[in-house]
Amino acid sequence: METNNFSIETENLSLWYGDFQALMDVSVKIPDGKITGLIGPSGCGKTTLLRCFNRVNERYGNVTTKGEIKILGKNIYDSDVSLLELRKTVGMVFQRPNPLPISVYDNILFGLRIHSQFRSLTRTQSDEIVEEALTSVFLWDDLKDKLKTRATSLQLEQQQKLCIARLLPLKPKIILMDEPCSALDAKGTLAVEELMSVLAGTYTFLIVTHNMAQARRISDECIYMFLGELIEHRETQALFETPEHPKTADYVQMRYG
Amino acid sequence: MNRSNLLYNVIAIVILALVLFMFWNFAASTSYVEGKITSGGVVIDTLSTIYGYLYGMIPICCVLILFSLAVAFYLEEWLSHRSWQYRIIERIIAIFACIPSLVYGLFCAYFIVVKSQQISYLTLTIAVFFIVVPVTIRTTQQVIQKVDLSVREAAYALGAKRMRVIADHVIPNTFPMILTGIFTTISRVLAIAALFIVICGWKITESNSKHSFDIPNNAIVLLSSALLFSVISCLFEKKKSL
Ligand SMILES: Nc1ncnc2c1ncn2[C@@H]1O[C@H](COP(=O)(O)OP(=O)(O)OP(=O)(O)O)[C@@H](O)[C@H]1O
Ligand SMILES: [Mg+2]
């Protein structure tokens, strides 16, 4: 790791759902501007870990968290942290494309309308924002005549790109992705991956995936989790080729050898 | 909301207005005689006394329906599903919602018509409360639960506040289905009202040979409206699946 700049740092992070412990003393540092993959068998707590970073876990009433999470150097459980600001900084893309059931145009502006006094946006400004966001995800040419159509009627691949696009006007620093390609076909998957590699650098990506090949293709670093514990965190190539921990080796080879 | 949703809602509201209008005319045409007022309420000695009370129940029903919707939204959107409050309320509602409205209706008819022969808004409200509230809460809850969870999460993850998510996502997506639930409820209430009229009419005729009522004709208006509401609600259910 060349830089010392980390977007996300956790220190002995543990999490319980009721009395079931889903995360055990996870300490991890996610580097700035890179793509970090998060792999591991089903139920090992990948989604849980991801959801800690923008505190959406709290919506379940029975969650207890212990330990420290720092996003861009700031502890997100400090009392002066605003959830609104946190969720602006840390965007999230979900497994199934989930645009809001409103027009493409309104989907892109949905976040902004929550965060800023949306009256202050003029029509031209909003048009520009929408165009810019759609252009960065390579959707502008396809959708420029369909801005008023319902986002849920688009193709899945376009929907998922739109879900990424709607984060961009908020100028997030970190984008969390929970199996963003599992509902897409091979072509859609490649398109989203390509998009990620273009956007990496500007944004820090943390992506959960069940697809080993994908983790290998796109991530710079990779984290292997097992039953709520962080087993190994190394550069992707090293993790796949010379795993240090026998559990990692089992998992990587089971899928890959 | 898109255009076809809107269309369905407009149709529903027009039909609702028509039925209410029909009722109102019917009410106006029956001569209205107040019964004797006693400490417990009003003695039932003519059918029109009862009709007077049944029409008086319309606003009360509306309030109860709105109340149930509010409770359902509170349960689903504000309370954690794992909290003990949620589980207890859920359980109680489930028990009351399982009991057929006929049972409540017969109890109510028994106590009001047969036992005390007195009618009051309080007793009717209690009966209607049990017929309307648990079932409406239940159906509304189920509709809200069907709303795509991931879309809701996405909105929260973008920083949306709860009211925003409800107003922009939950209500637009559930409105037609909630309307279905309300129509079913109205249909149940009408059916019970028909039953009530039959029992009252029978009782009055039995105790007072001067009055003889065309019970079937009175009841059939209510019953056919009940049927109408059921049919409408079925249509909605067919057309609007989430
Ligand atoms: N809201 C919740 N309440 C209780 N337990 C939960 C909740 N969410 C997840 N869990 C449990 O926590 C553990 C970790 O779940 P999590 O969803 O983080 O796994 P995952 O690694 O994302 O799995 P998958 O690959 O299947 O998505 C699982 O055992 C799961 O059953
Ligand atoms: Mg998961």
Describe the structure.
The complex is a heterodimer of chains A (257) and B (242). Chain A has 257 residues and is of the alpha/beta class. Chain A has a domain at 6-101 and 172-252: Rossmann fold, CATH 3.40.50.300. Chain A contains ten helices and ten strands. Chain A has helices at 46-52, 83-89, 104-115, 123-136, 140-143, 156-165, 186-199, 212-218, 236-241, 246-256, and strands at 6-17, 20-31, 35-39, 63-71, 74-75, 90-93, 174-178, 204-208, 221-226, 229-235. Chain A has a six-stranded mixed β-sheet with strand order 6-7-8-3-9-10, with helices on both faces. In chain A, strands 2-1-4-5 form a four-stranded antiparallel β-sheet, covered by helices on one side. Chain A is globular, with a radius of gyration of 18 Å. Chain B has 242 residues and is mainly α. The model of chain B has no long low-confidence stretch (mean pLDDT 79). Chain B has a three-stranded antiparallel β-sheet with strand order 1-2-3. Chain B has one domain (3-241): Orthogonal Bundle (MetI-like fold). Chains A and B meet through α2 and α3 of A and α6 and α7 of B. The structure holds adenosine-5'-triphosphate and magnesium ion.
